[in-house]
């Protein structure tokens, strides 16, 4: 399955959700997760993300491997999101910040 990683935290541009043919994105307060049981590995979402937050599971950068289990865990409790929406007001301030995993709200 594909995995949403660090760059998405507090940016949450949501361009990705509109292209997913199986609607497997799940929405939290300041991050999105992909449900690995639903993702069909089509890769369409990758190019949509303006901050390159999405990777195939076997290509997730070493420092962001924790996001693989995190996507699976969060996707279980978060609702689906299938339509694009406006990002947080302060998204630009967070776009180039790294290691935001502790900032994810449940
Ligand atoms: Fe959806 Fe395809 Fe992205 Fe998986 S790889 S989350 S199926 S758009
Ligand atoms: Fe996040 Fe990129 Fe989608 S910032 S919401 S993975 S378009």
UniProtKB/TrEMBL annotation:
Stored PROSITE patterns: 4FE4S_FER_1 (PS00198), 4FE4S_FER_2 (PS51379)
- Pfam families given in the database record: DUF3470, Fer4
Could you say which cofactors this protein requires?
Answer: [3Fe-4S] cluster; [4Fe-4S] cluster
| This protein's UniProt keywords | 3Fe-4S, 4Fe-4S, Electron transport, Iron, Iron-sulfur, Metal-binding, Repeat, Transport
Q: Name one GO molecular function term.
A: electron transfer activity
Under Gene3D superfamilies, the record lists: 3.30.70.20
Signal peptide (from-to): none
Give the top-rank taxon of the lineage listed in the UniProt record for this protein: Bacteria
Boundaries of each 4Fe-4S ferredoxin-type domain copy?
1-29, 30-59
Describe the task this protein carries out: Ferredoxins are iron-sulfur proteins that transfer electrons in a wide variety of metabolic reactions.
Which protein are we looking at? Ferredoxin
Tell me which species this is from.
Chitinilyticum piscinae
């Amino acid at each position: 399955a594909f995995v949403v990683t660090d760059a998405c935290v507090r940016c949450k541009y949501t361009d990705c959700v509109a292209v997913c043919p199986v609607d497997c994105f799940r929405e939290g307060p300041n991050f999105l997760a992909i449900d690995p049981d639903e993702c069909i590995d089509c890769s369409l979402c990758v190019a949509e993300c303006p901050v390159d937050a999405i990777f195939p599971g076997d290509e997730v950068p070493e420092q962001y491997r924790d996001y693989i289990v995190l996507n699976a865990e969060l996707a279980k409790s978060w609702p689906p999101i299938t339509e694009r929406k406006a990002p947080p007001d302060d998204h630009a301030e967070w776009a180039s910040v790294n290691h935001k995993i502790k900032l994810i709200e449940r």
